[in-house]
């Protein structure tokens, strides 16, 4: 049975738009905060029964059309020999960042062995709700992962990695290729363990010039997303005006951030499926405001090949009732197919 979300990702006309939210199992749900009192973030994602419990929280609250596994984009650093931890108020800290242009040529270890807890989580989710909703896997994209590995943590401008590109373009290319290789294996591993759809988050790549994106990143996205045996979604922020680059990524669907006009994107992308793109800040409005703005996105996107989502992740302070209004608006739509 093809889930509603899978059908939309393939470009089909659907009786209503499937709906899920990026970061939907995160801190806006009270039970998540209670669980995290007993487990650190890394303990939670590396303990399959805990990650399963967290992943299922939005199912218990909203029953969305897709459940995204509770994990992190940085898990895939481990097969490349990087270690990281999470510092409160800082975020991820890479303990052994790239030391220079001579420290970029890396081959990855056994993804299935080193990230076995992700495979177990996906199997658990399929056993629990795989007949009722799509299971969504994901990975970080090569530029985003390389930014963390070079900067040693989050970087708003990605300047350390962009400096590497300017000073050592061959090293820059080698590092990104190493991440592309491990990410492709990782996504195939997720699909093999039951992911119905996978999303590539190369969130930071939008800070590159169009020329650098086309030269360095686009071929790697194509390499990663080709030949995967499940529908694929690509997400990059700040790509308004450069959607043609995302359309050439090899993904089945393009996720749009909230700065993109949905109707214009649909016209530009043609029949290519899209995901998005409500402004996450709108979920701080009253439920009727949320419903109104959600209907506007749905109407602009049209009935074929649209997955309803936010333009980025759910903010940790988002009211549950607003998320519920968002999901229920999608479920209230009735179309002929």
Could you tell me the CATH topology label. TIM Barrel
CATH class: Alpha Beta
Strand order of the largest sheet: 1-4-5-6-7-8-9
Radius of gyration: 19 Å
Major beta sheet, specifics? Answer: 7 strands, parallel
Please give the number of β-strands: 9
Structural class by SSE content: alpha/beta
CATH architecture: Alpha-Beta Barrel
Percent of residues in helices: 40-55%
Describe this structure in words.
There is one protein chain. The protein has helices at residues 4-9, 30-36, 41-46, 48-61, 111-114, 116-129, 142-151, 159-167, 169-192, 210-225, 243-247, 262-269, 287-301, 320-331, and strands at 66-68, 84-87, 91-94, 134-140, 197-201, 232-235, 253-255, 274-278, 306-310. The chain has 337 residues and is α/β, with parallel strands linked by helices. It has a single domain (4-331), classed as TIM Barrel (Alpha-Beta Barrel), CATH 3.20.20. The strands form two sheets. The chain has a seven-stranded parallel sheet. A two-stranded antiparallel sheet has the order 2-3. Strand 5 (197-201), helix 10 and strand 6 (232-235) form a beta-alpha-beta unit. Helix 4 packs parallel to helix 6 and helix 13 (287-301) packs parallel to helix 14 (320-331). The radius of gyration is 19 Å and the shape is globular.
């Amino acid at each position: 049975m093809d889930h509603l979300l899978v059908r939309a990702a393939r470009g089909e006309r659907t009786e209503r738009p499937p709906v899920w939210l990026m970061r939907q199992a995160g801190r806006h749900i009270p039970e998540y905060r209670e669980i995290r009192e007993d487990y650190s973030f890394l303990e939670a994602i590396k303990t399959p029964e805990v990650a399963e419990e967290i992943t299922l929280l939005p199912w218990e609250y909203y029953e969305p059309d897709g459940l995204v596994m509770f994990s992190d984009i940085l898990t895939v650093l481990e097969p490349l020999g990087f270690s990281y931890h999470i510092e409160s108020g800082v975020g991820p800290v890479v303990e052994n960042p790239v030391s220079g242009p001579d420290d970029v040529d890396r081959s990855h270890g056994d993804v299935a062995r080193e990230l076995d807890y992700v495979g177990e989580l996906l199997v658990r989710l399929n056993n629990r709700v795989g007949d009722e909703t799509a299971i969504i896997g994901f990975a970080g994209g090569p530029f985003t992962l390389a930014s963390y590995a070079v900067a040693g943590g989050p970087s708003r401008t990605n300047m350390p990695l962009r400096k590497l590109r300017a000073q050592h373009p061959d090293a820059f290319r080698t590092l990104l290729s190493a991440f592309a290789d491990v990410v492709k294996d990782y996504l195939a591993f997720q699909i093999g363990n039951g992911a119905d759809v996978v999303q590539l988050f190369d969130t930071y790549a939008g800070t590159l010039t169009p020329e650098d994106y086309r030269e360095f990143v686009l071929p790697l996205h194509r390499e990663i997303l080709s030949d995967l045996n499940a529908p694929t979604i690509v997400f990059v922020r700040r790509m308004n005006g450069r959607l043609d680059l995302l359309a050439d990524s090899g993904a089945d669907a393009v996720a749009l951030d909230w700065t993109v006009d949905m109707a214009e994107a649909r016209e530009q992308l043609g029949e290519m499926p899209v995901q998005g793109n409500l402004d996450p800040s709108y979920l701080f409005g009253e439920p009727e405001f949320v419903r109104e703005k959600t209907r506007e996105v749905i109407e602009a996107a049209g009935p074929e090949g649209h997955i309803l989502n936010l333009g980025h992740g759910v903010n940790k302070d988002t009211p549950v009732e607003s998320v519920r209004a968002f999901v229920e608006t999608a479920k209230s739509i009735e179309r002929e197919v």
